[in-house]
Amino acid sequence: MNSGSTLRAMRPTFIFAAIGIVFMLFAPQVLALFTIINLTTAIALAILALSLALVWGYGGILCFGQVAFFGLGAYAYTIGAINFGGSTWAILLAVAVAAAFAAVVGYFMFYGRVSDVYLGVITLTVTLILYSLIRRTSGPEYKIGNALLGGFNGVGSPPLNLPWNARAFLFPEQVFYVAMAALILAYVFAGWLVTTHFGRVCVAIRENETRAELLGYDARAYKLGIFTISAGIAGLAGVFFCNGVGRVTPDVFGLYNAALTIIWVIVGGRGTLIGPIIATFGLFYLTASLGGQQTLNNNLVLGIILIVFVLLVPRGLAPTIADWFTQGRRGRVGAERAARRARRRAGAAEGGK
Amino acid sequence: MKKRAAETVVETRGLCMHFGGVRAVDQVDFALEDRELRCLIGPNGAGKSTFFKCLTGQLTPTAGEITIRGTPVAGAQSHEIASLGVGIKTQVPNVFDGLTAEENIWLSARRWHGGARARTLTAETIERLRLGEIRRSLVGRLAHGQRQWVELGMVVAAEPWLVLLDEPAAGMTHEETARTAELILEINRTAALIVVEHDMQFIRMISRRVTLFHEGRILMEDTMDAISSDRRAREVYLGHRA
Ligand SMILES: Nc1ncnc2c1ncn2[C@@H]1O[C@H](COP(=O)(O)OP(=O)(O)OP(=O)(O)O)[C@@H](O)[C@H]1O
Ligand SMILES: [Mg+2]
């Protein structure tokens, strides 16, 4: 695609990014600090949802263990920041560790031509292995540099600081700005990626791997590529998650989080990037508001939402709404055209009199 | 021996593809010359599609050799064989259902060309195959015949020098079939072709040399006229097809 059509294809992405920027600038003015800190965690989860939206919705790869890269990112950031005494390199380390781990796991899965079902099983198993491994690190001997891993208690995460100035820690409000900016950048990046030749080939492979191969595309390489990129984004999500929470524990690798990630993308809609992001914010606030009361069990509500969506809105929110929108517009245009035709005919009849 | 004027572009020797006890392709020695247009016929289950799948790397042969322009390709990956310049239309249309017809064809052109050239090539192919009306339609919503044309478009847009077509006229109207025959002759100006078809009229329209498959083996290889006057050929295939 040329730059003109790329821009056209990316117009919705830019509109949502602009809305995100407005939100980023105004939210701290109106919301309480407590809400802003909570929001940082929600933003981190939204970046995680974005990463799965990319690899599953566009790459067609159902990765049950996206939280493995998320958790690795969180741990790599925390351990890196403690050892480097600053966060700048730690962020890059988090992204690199998550992506490199995905590249290795992905290499064996894709080049081994593992089937889709086993791919889901393998990614989930890897996540659970990481969970139980990191839980067992609760002795003084489990130390990476200056960082004690702390077993199931986890490690306290140093907050972000200004680039290359380890003493200038960011306040929670400023971390919110950075997280929101990261979400917007990651969103625009992913939105651009899916319009590139690489991105279109990934979508083609999702649609029909045999045909893509018969056209001469090496499906394995493209799948590995999008898998690795999305893992890097998940690693970035981990950075902001442990910043929002203030520490990282083995629970980041937990089954609950793994399932939640899938639910966000199902509710938000596969094949879009904005849907899962919005679904994450929505469900985050739903569970937060349910957390305060006792009548309804949180997991029960999530389960019901999942079932409702799978049965009634199988394509998810964003694609369904987008359909209404285009159908509505097409209907309007059609009606206008019919009306114009009727008017013309009426005019001709009158002229003939 | 035949006169060896043209280069042999496809050659198989002792090619076998067995599924358990089923000998779908059995000891096939086959040769195709450059710019040749060959038809492959045979009853259902004769092994024609399986033979194609071996040539394009969708199946790894049980035994035997395949060379394409001198490169041994038995057991190679599909994308490697396609990258030699081989285009295939499969029997069950393999298209990108969730994408538009235009994008289907663009993905083929873009594999070999930069952005600008791929765009013109896409536009030319759409024009040439008269897909203008459906270029923005999702291929999954098209009729069977139209999906066949989109797939043909993908094959053409890659500008291959070797083209394999598995029942290209299936599900097409008379007029579409005639156009397909025209297109095949046009492709043949720059590429060698192997075409599998059941439609005898169609074969008479395009072919010079015909290979008759039966139970995984090559039974005969001759002109359509010679084959239709052969007793054995009539027994296994043509007899029940008029
Ligand atoms: N994957 C497979 N596993 C087992 N048997 C197979 C497989 N693929 C094909 N066969 C068998 O191999 C034989 C040849 O099948 P093939 O599809 O090549 O026939 P064909 O000549 O293309 O027939 P048609 O004219 O119906 O398309 C058939 O008996 C079929 O059942
Ligand atoms: Mg067949």
**What are the low-pLDDT stretches of chain A, counting only 5+ consecutive residues below 50?**
347-353
Strand content of chain A is: under 5%
Major sheet summary line of chain B: 6 strands, mixed
Q: Using DSSP, what is the number of strands of chain A?
A: 6
Binned, the helix content of chain A reads over 70%
Number of domains of chain B: 2
The total count of strands of chain B amounts to: 10
Question: Widest sheet of chain B: strand order?
Answer: 6-7-8-3-9-10
Q: Cα-atom Rg of chain B, whole angstroms?
A: 18 Å
- Cα shape of chain B: globular
Tell me what you see in this structure.
The complex is a heterodimer of chains A (about 350) and B (about 240). Chain A is built from 14 helices and six strands. Chain A has about 350 residues and is mainly α. Chain A folds into two domains: about 300 residues, no CATH class; about 40 residues. In chain A, strands 1-2 form a two-stranded antiparallel sheet. Chain A has a two-stranded antiparallel sheet with strand order 3-6. Chain A is globular, with a radius of gyration of 23 Å. The mean pLDDT of chain B is about 90. In chain B, about 35% of the residues lie in helices and about 25% in strands. The radius of gyration of chain B is 18 Å and the shape is globular. Chain B contains nine helices and ten strands. Chain B folds into two domains: about 150 residues, P-loop containing nucleotide triphosphate hydrolases (Rossmann fold, 3-Layer(aba) Sandwich); about 70 residues, no CATH class. At the A-B interface, helix 8 and helix 9 of A face helix 2, helix 3 and helix 4 of B. Magnesium ion binds next to helix 1 of chain B. The site of adenosine-5'-triphosphate (ATP) has 12 residues of chain B, from strand 2 and helix 1.
